[in-house]
Amino acid sequence: MTRTLSGLILAAAVAATLAGCNQQTEVKSDMPPLPASATAPVVYAKDVHSYAQPQIARVKHVDLDLTADFNAKTLSGTATLDVTAEPGATQIILDTRNLDIKAVRGPNGPLQYQVGAADPILGQPLTVTLPAFTAGETLKISIDYSTRPDAAALQWLTPAQTAGGKLPFLFSQGQAILTRTWVPTQDSPGIRQTYSAKITVPDTLKAVMSAEMLTPEGETGSNGTHSYRFRMTNPVPPYLIALAVGDLAFAADGTRTGVWTEPSKLEAAKAEFAEMGQMVDAAEALYGPYRWGRYDLLILPPSFPFGGMENPRLTFATPTVVAGDKSLVSLVAHELAHSWSGNLVTNATWADFWLNEGFTTYFQNRIMEAVYGNARAQQERVLGWDSLQEQLKTLPAADTRLHLDLTGRDPDEGMTDIAYEKGAALLETIERTVGRERFDAWLKGYFERNAFRPMTTELFLQDIRANLIKGDAALESRLQLDAWIYQPGLPSSAVAPTSDAFVAVDNAAKAFFADRGPASAIPWSGWNTQQRQRFLQWRPAGLRDGADWLTNQQLADLEKTLNLKAEGNAEVVFGWLQLAIAHRYEPAVPKLQTFLTSMGRRKFVLPLFTSLWAEGDWGRPIATRIYALARPGYHPVTATSVDALVGAPKG
Ligand code: BES
Ligand code: ZN
Questions:
Q1: Active-site position among 145, 295, 362, 420
Q2: How far apart are CA 526 and CA 223, in angstroms?
Q3: Ligand 1, residues 171, 309, 327, 404: which to mutate, most atoms within 8 A of Cβ?
């Protein structure tokens, strides 16, 4: 059955009416109709990170009616779930963590429910006894609940933590399994759900979500509140349900792209991402239609724990990518690419995270190549490859396989360069082997055939064998797919990328670091950010952990000559601070403190604390002191990671 546009609007209107709306706003959907692949039956993979049993009863739609209370730091209200169940099913199991459940209701009154024992990673199963139903019926189950102030997905920012300094801010981060800390649903990436929401916030603030905005201006409510309505008519994995509330302004950029952020940051953000529309066009030209209507970017306050998060229609991003010179825009290419790899074709479980991130990293580089040219894309490929080489040295061999076993572990542990860079390297290898034209045709078809469906490593192998390899035994053996996926490390077919622009950098690095030349000989001002990153990452071969290889005098020369005290590009600052910590270079500690207390991006924060920790008597007291200052500003995702290393500050 193909769904028409008017059918979608009607469905959303019915859903909204059933959810108890008193005011109906007709908004024409800009989302294309769903392809047949969206509704074909799904075989659910076993997800060790969810209590759900979707083969018995599953959630199809989530309707939220929530009020944000910035004093209590809670979201409270009702989640109404559309549920379908197999004949004879007596219960549905949902995922929750740290929620206060007040009541569960069916169409005819209260339903029995039970909240199970809490697992520190998975949270608690919420088992609801189903009312009587007829085969094929959609049941509506309403859960009255409230989040806790320490809900792990949510960060409630004080005005001081925002750019404006006057109003509070709230944002959510669902991936991997944190949506259950603010929405009681089946929180497994293989169980796609449509959603709608009414979010009530103080009058001074605006709510945005990873969905179509039905009431851009909001509707006036009681007690100085405004309500905003949203709908997502494409079925999405629940980790993509996202919300932000704050003093937000919007600047359009072209017809289907634009930027949201705090008013004082809008102009800079708009200028930085002026090529967003071109990126979407380039992505579509490569791998088929963009299926989500608009593509907007939300630049969050600096505590956002990730670089970016591919929430549909509205990528969430750290302000550290607004560098002023477009040097870090590949983050947008990455999150945009997830609109295909991740949001359309989704890892069925977190064991196959590489299907999201590896495909996306490959696709990101293709978008960069199309919009900014091959030289830039190649530089970024090399930086990614280098980072992979470093991680391969330290990860346990079992965790260097693409398909992971995460049983009993936090899915966050799969967030390594293996998924991103080894995954991308596999696709680069296939591309090189079969030629770009053939590879692109396959990849475009892969997204089309599997749109809105969960993907496993096994299904990927089936697809590529059926549609690309097609029984060619010589090709099969050259590709070494099983070795890439199921064996540790990199197979012999992997080829390191190279960049001409790095030749001069490597020469200058050798002259300064190894041959102890003056910093004035480094042609720094002629280099772009990627070249600067490459320079600062240079390490002598065979360096022992903890061994100094520069003198304090050399570091001071470098710091002064390259003006590193005043450096503002977060990637360059990060590279410099890593170098400084490795040498226990005291003069860089104030910059380190400023950096760690001014943003909460885990990719920067955790490695810096880890490096400090590795410096024993010198680094640990510094880490403890700075962490006590920084931790109150961090999102739970970042704080939890650093707690495991430094320990939570007492008191
Ligand atoms: N989806 C990820 C972020 C993520 C992964 C959050 C796993 C939670 C669990 C996002 O697309 C991502 O990879 N972000 C990167 C940026 C990118 C340019 C590599 C980041 O945040 O650093
Ligand atoms: Zn990603």
A1: 420
A2: 57
A3: 309
d(CA 108, CA 297): 42
Quote the tokens at residue 500.
Answer: 């001409």
The answer on pLDDT for 332 being more than 80 is yes
Q: For residue 468, which amino acid is it?
A: L
Nearest CA to ligand 1 atom 10: 309
CA distances from 154 to 90, 110, 304, 452, 463 (A): 33, 29, 10, 27, 38
565, 525 in Cβ contact below 8 A? Answer: no
Residue type, 156: W
Distance CA 37, CA 42 (A): 10
Pocket test residue of 49, 306, 417 for ligand 1, highest count of atoms within 8 A of CB? 306
Separation between Cα atoms, residue 185 and residue 79, nearest integer Å: 9
CB-based pocket (< 6 A), ligand 1: 175-176, 306-310, 331, 334-335, 338, 357, 415, 603
Tokens representing 532?
């600067």
Distance (Å, rounded) from C-alpha 199 to C-alpha 226? Answer: 8
Q: Which of 141, 150, 160, 208 is nearest to 182 (CA)?
A: 150
Q: How far apart are CA 517 and CA 510, in angstroms?
A: 9
Whether 290 shows a pLDDT value over 90: the answer reads yes
| Length of the chain (residues) | 651
**Does 504 sit behind a cis peptide bond, omega within 30 degrees of 0 on the bond before it?**
no
pLDDT digits (tens, 9 = 90+) for 503-521: 999 999 999 998 999 999 9
pTM beyond 0.90:
yes
Beta carbons of 540 and 583 less than 8 angstroms apart: no
